[in-house]
Amino acid sequence: MSLDCKKEADKIVEFIKSHFKLNGFKKAILGISGGLDSAIVATLAKKALGKDNVYGYVIPYNKQSDIVDAYKVANSLEIHLEEINIGEIVDELIFSTNISSSQNYMTRIGNLKARVRMIILYDMSVKHTALVLGTGNRTELELGYFTIYGDGACALEPIGHLYKTDTVGLAKYLDVPEEIIKKAPSAGLWIGQTDEKELGGSYAEIDEILKNKSFDKSEFGKSLLNRMNKNTFKLKLPCMIQ
Fold it and tell me: Is the pTM of this model over 0.85?
């Protein structure tokens, strides 16, 4: 069944409004990567809170091509956008922790970038007395395909209930720039990194399996289930003695 985009957009806008009112906030902070999901959330946040209450941050590691697209999104929405480069910070952490000598150094460096970005967003949330909006979708959340306390940290996930393939139609309805919609999804954690390359299949294939719970019908499905099981801990609150 196809998504009723108007109904969905209205529902998310109302969700944002009510959450902010309930918690006594008027302003929102979010990272704008130049990708589809952050463009959607920024658009919906503007509708819910007004353009003057949405603060976007593009947080590149040195000079990334996505910066241009982040400005394109912010300019089209007429919202505040500030660029904060984390190149020196991340490089110092890589050097001081000797990450480059470890076998899983790419994952560790990617996690560092994601967590440094979130440090900045939460610092800006204090500066502006604002809540941090997440930009994760249901596909990423179900798979645990995010960095815990990195891009997984936020006050609310406006599109966390939507599978990745469902967000495309919503983006078109919201008039997100076409070049943003057509971009290969990527967290921008290293050169050449794309979500589908890292996950081993297209989002269309992944969402089909997730929606129908058909993990046992292919080796790829089994690999997705294994990924989900390994990452279950990311979706739980810290354990405490009862």
Answer: yes
